[in-house]
Specification:
2 copies of one chain form a homodimer. By secondary structure, the first copy, chain A, is an alpha+beta fold. Chain A folds into 2 domains: 2-80, 3-Layer(aba) Sandwich (Glutaredoxin), CATH 3.40.30; 87-198, Glutathione S-transferase Yfyf (Class Pi), Chain A, domain 2 (Up-down Bundle). The first copy, chain A, contains 9 helices and 4 strands; from the N terminus they run E-H-E-H-E-E-H-H-H-H-H-H-H. Chain A has a 4-stranded mixed beta sheet with strand order 2-1-3-4, with helices on one face. The A-B interface holds A 48-49, 51, 61, 63-65, 67-69, 71-72, 75-76, 87-88, 90-92, 94-95, 98-99, 101-103, 105-107, 112, 115-116, 119-120, 122, 126, 129-130, 133, 140-141, 144-145 and B 48-49, 51, 61, 63-65, 67-69, 71-72, 75-76, 87-88, 90-92, 94-95, 98-99, 101-103, 105-107, 112, 115-116, 119-120, 122, 126, 129-130, 133, 140-141, 144-145.
């Protein structure tokens, strides 16, 4: 498998975590988003969307959208499970993942921040306030969900799809100096995850294309 | 089951379509987003997130996040299937759904538009340009995916999770006068869906809380 991705892309980071948790080897193909490599013909020939992550399977098929990729990996390589055996547990794990993937991250990714700055002429301070607003709102929802059913990880005593989404979001939040106080369960889950070698190996600073 | 939702919420509309496709009866509970009812204690007592749709099951459990709800319905009421039997098909259907649910809709929902207007002081014209920009970008990706594997519906010859997400997005795009030219496959899928009674029954104008 080849994973087209970028060290700082949090959607890429989600997939790297899933691959590491499952112990699946993959070829790392860097697509430098800040340099616009996702818009170059070499990459758009692979995926019209021009988005990372893109997972190319050994048979040449290409999968897009990080949550869909992780569910595919989970179905085709079931151990360790990143979703659960029961429908109610899966619904909760997916809903947690989607708090990050549908409520926080889409508002804060690079192309959106660029639109704010270049098209809407939003200044740095207002851009950072926007970023922090959506992070905070989403993580408060996440915290409330965790408080209702506390566990070591986001759901239960092993990492799931939800943790694959949460951890990269916390990395981003820290990078943008977001207020992470008052989120004790969320931060405890984050710390539990970061004790695991899979999360360590997947993090931006462990990537071949990492830039400080 | 009780579906807490709002006629104009496109995430609510997704779940209504799934319920109708599966022929599942539900109690319609209106939450008037424009009047802020999602922030009232009656609703936040049910879900800290204060987001619709919220599906309350007969045993009292409450499910959030539209895609997670639809997958739950599909797992617990398998016929007709809204995802497919094969992992590759499911990955494609989920990726299509996520183009809408992660790339378009989060940028254009009511609370984001309110932030643009009230916090960033964005004018009407720039707000509409923002809306149309993300719709267009996402639907062009959707069109490219459909062109690579054409069918009557988004994937294959029956509606799936992807169509549950696409159709409400097209309704929104039309309401905001987005340019839908040059998207022949996407619009043909939309029209095929709207010929089905389930999509007709789920649409905003068929909802008890509809306002013209």
């Amino acid at each position: 498998m080849k994973l087209y991705n970028y060290f700082r892309s949090s959607a890429s980071f989600r997939v790297r975590i899933a691959l590491e948790l499952k112990g699946l080897a993959y070829e790392y193909r860097a697509v430098h988003l800040a340099k616009g490599e996702q818009k170059q013909p070499e990459f758009t020939a692979l995926t019209a969307e021009g988005l990372v992550p893109l997972l190319e399977l050994d048979d040449g098929r290409r999968l897009t959208q990080s949550m869909a990729i992780i569910e595919y990996l989970d179905e085709t390589h079931p151990q360790p499970a990143l979703l659960l055996a029961d429908a109610a547990g899966r619904a909760r794990v997916r809903a947690l993942a989607q708090i990050v993937a549908c409520e926080i991250h889409p508002l804060n990714n690079l192309r959106v921040l660029k639109y704010l700055v270049h098209e809407l002429k939003v200044g740095d301070e207002a851009k950072n306030a926007w970023y922090r607003h959506w992070v905070r709102l989403g993580l408060e929802s996440y915290e409330a969900q965790l408080a209702a059913q506390p566990a070591t990880y986001s759901h239960g005593d092993a990492p799931t799809l939800a943790d694959c989404c949460l951890v990269p979001q916390i990395f981003n939040a820290q990078r943008f100096d977001c207020d992470l106080s008052g989120l004790p369960r969320t931060m405890a889950v984050f710390e539990a995850c970061m004790k695991l070698p899979a999360f360590q190996r997947a993090q931006p600073s462990a990537c071949p294309d990492f830039e400080a």
